Amino acid sequence: MEAASTHKPAYDRLAELKAFDETKSGVKGLSDAEITHLPRIFHAPPHLLDNISPSAAAPDPHHHHHPSPIFPIIDLEGATDDPAKRNAIVNKLSEASANWGFFQIVNHGIPLTTLDEMKSGVRKFHEQDAEQRKQFYTRNFSSRIVYNSNFDLFTGPAANWRDTVSFNMAPDPLKPEQLPTVCGEIVAEYSAEVVKLGDLLFELLSEALGLRSNYLKDLDCGRGIQMVCHYYPACPQPELTLGATKHADNDFITVLLQDHIGGLQVLHQGKWIDVPPLPEALVINIGDFLQLISNDKFISVEHRVLANSMGPRVSVACLFGTYLFPNPRKYGPIEELLSEENPAKYRETTTAEYVLCGNNKGLDGSSTLLQFKL
How far is CA 337 from the centre of its chain? Predict the structure, then answer.
């Protein structure tokens, strides 16, 4: 009989995922253990690692180097009190939302100190003693506070090198005392600021669609906010995995605060473009629902985050969606935007049905929107 010892034990992916999940200490726990090799559950399939060398890499001398397209930056100064400036801003927003699905905003009204404190609060949460973090660790996504590693750990093709804590902050805000002690004050303060900013953005986006200012607000687009706070530790083998697999967001819009490390990339005209970190800026992107109700006038674009060896990177994504509260409203393409030349491209859906559909498949690199095409 052949000696069993010559055979490596079969790779039991599910058992390894469960063992990792049961530590309740996430990727940060692995990072604290100073592992030098990336566990196999994090190895991304090759097609998802397409072209992960950052685009800032040295240009190939044998190719004519084409400059990267400039990532749009929109200055919101004057948006609320200067009609001419507002008009110019609406035009820029319209163009960026139609061509990129992404843009950065400056002069958005949230103080730089608040942005810095928010990033620092996320670091403090993820860097506190593992025992303190563990009390929030859960896979029950109806919880108001969810801390875990990879929402799609058991359904996605590969685990991403990141941990996340998310707070359900609207329409019914958590109070500082209901939030983790290390970051409660700033989470409550920052989310209140983002709610105000969301109001303004939805007005400007309504106008950019040629609708009255309150149109999107009246559809509840700005009512629900999930604040998703990601932590990406330095990775021992960043070329084998991702911080976040390519995906589009299943919401109306996302307001993202990112730190100085970089790694966020947007798929623009078939190429991965780096989103340059700007300390005073917020990154805004159009989500699947806004693409659906605008009947493809505005696009929800795939993006990803590279793993990095510098770390930790932190980011805070505020997702404006309505799946956090019971919302029977059906969303379909907006009547006013349709015509004989531009018929509806999507069937109506509730946000709950849509999110369930997306969560069931995990971050597999495909678009949930396709499942709702007429």
Answer: 27
CATH of residue 224's domain is: 2.60.120.330
Asked whether residue 145 is assigned to any structural domain, the reply reads yes
In 10 A of CB 109, how many CB atoms? 13
- What's the number of domains the chain is made of? 1
pLDDT at 51: 76
Q: Which residues contact 312 (CB under 8 A, 6 or more apart)?
A: 31, 123, 126, 127, 231, 232, 233, 234
* CA dist., res. 223 & res. 167, Å (int): 15
Q: 191 Cβ partners below 8 Å, 6+ apart?
A: 167, 169, 170, 173, 225, 227, 318
Characterize the bridge pairing of strands 242-247 and 303-306: antiparallel
**pLDDT for 58 beyond 60:** no
Beta bridge partners of 167: 145, 227
At 133-191, the pLDDT tens digits run: 999 999 988 899 999 999 999 988 899 999 999 999 988 899 999 999 999 999 999 99
Encode pLDDT of 314-325 as tens digits.
999 999 987 666
Q: Which two tokens stand for residue 238?
A: 């960043």
Residue 173, classed as helix, strand or coil, is coil
Structural domain boundaries enclosing 239:
13-46+69-372
Answer whether residue 51 is part of any domain: no
Convert the pLDDT of each residue in 75-84 to its tens digit: 999 999 999 9
Output helix, strand, coil percentages for the chain, rounded to the nearest 5. 35, 20, 50
> Per-residue pLDDT for 206 more than 60?
yes
**Is pTM beyond 0.85 here?**
yes
Position 5 in a domain: no
Is residue 39 domain-resident? yes
Could you give the CA distance from residue 349 to residue 332 in angstroms, rounded to a whole number? 7
Please give the structure tokens belonging to residue 5.
């010892």
Query: What is the CB neighbour count within 10 angstroms for residue 320?
Result: 27
